[in-house]
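Progress against Task 2.4 (sequence-to-structure conversion) is shown through the following example record, which the project officer requested during the mid-term review.
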Amino acid sequence: MRVKWWGQASPLTRTPRCRARRMRSTLPPKQRAVIVLRYYGGLSDAEIADTLGCGESTVRAYATRALAALRVEIRSTSDLGRTS
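Structure tokens generated for the chain above:
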């Protein structure tokens, strides 16, 4: 639930945790699963591959693509606050 705060999103939705969740939600499902299982679940590539039913190289490819997409998202949101 998003609470309006004087015409804007609540300050509570601007926390790093909320921003991370919002960025993760933009990823395709398999990439999001790999990121969550690796960094929040602490699983190895082999364990993630077993869980998702794919190869370890596929897990690494999903992770690489997801991290690249997140980097672009972080850069684009940090550029919004800059003024030239």
